[in-house]
Design brief:
By secondary structure, this protein is mostly helical. Helix content is 70%, strand content 4%. The chain contains 11 helices and 3 strands; from the N terminus they run αβααββαααααααα. It has a 3-stranded antiparallel sheet. β2 and β3 form a beta hairpin. It is globular, with a radius of gyration of 18 Å. The two termini are 26 Å apart. The relative contact order is 0.13.
């Protein structure tokens, strides 16, 4: 498991939940693998209580399964939840880019342009982890521009199921296409073309439909819920 540093503003619960989620999303904690409160607490330098609270919170969004008297394990990939995550993102993000096109400030236009420039630099340098982080930051910024930051928090609490298969399916070709999509969406938002921004976002999210059979062929059968 990869242990990232704790932010001074994070509670123990929030820190444990962030680290666990990051490791689940990037398959450092594999689907179906057992997780121990005692071991996690020792690795994170925490007591068992915040770790238990983090596991309970992740169980609510179905990233972790908790079995009384038996322990916990990382949930297997459930394609019903993946499809529902895609549905939620498509509905909310298409509406958000329309609002962002109408509400964006000059300063926020610069923020969007800076993000895209960094994405293009990471793509050229092969820095895929940083690119995925910038991808998420771009989408979050669009919600902030539209004054819908709480909606973003609620949405990302569930769409982790989509994010998990997205990280499994990433390739250089897909990343190149995604950055090109982001550039087109940002240009539409900056120019105030709400209808174009909506259409481009819908096309962008539609590209993320992951070939389930291809992933099943690539990864162990134990990763997936039957």
């Amino acid at each position: 498991m990869i242990i990232s540093p704790r932010d001074l503003r994070e509670t123990g619960r929030d820190y444990a939940m962030r680290v666990l989620k990051e490791n689940i999303l990037h398959l450092e904690l594999e689907p179906g693998s057992k997780v121990s409160e005692n071991e996690l607490a020792a690795q994170l330098g925490l007591s068992r209580t915040p770790v238990r609270e983090a596991l309970m919170a992740l169980a609510k969004v179905r990233l972790v399964e908790i079995y009384p008297q038996k322990g916990s394990e990382v949930s297997r990939i459930d394609y019903d939840l993946v499809e529902e995550s895609c549905f939620m993102r498509r509905i909310l993000e298409c509406a958000v880019v329309e609002l962002a096109s109408q509400m964006i400030t000059p300063e926020q236009k610069v923020e969007l342009e800076d993000n895209i420039a960094l994405q293009e630099r990471c793509l050229r340098g092969g820095r895929m982890g940083a690119l995925m982080q910038l991808d998420n930051e771009l989408h979050r910024l669009l919600f902030r521009i539209a004054h819908k930051e709480q909606t973003w928090e609620l949405m990302t609490g569930f769409t982790v199921h989509f994010d998990r298969v997205r990280s499994m399916a990433l390739s250089t070709a897909l990343n190149e296409r995604n950055v090109a999509d982001h550039r087109a969406i940002v240009q539409a938002v900056i120019s105030g073309d709400a209808s174009a921004a909506h259409r481009l976002m819908e096309e962008h999210l539609g590209r993320y439909r992951v070939d389930e059979q291809a992933l099943r062929d690539q990864y162990p059968a134990t990763y997936f819920k039957e």
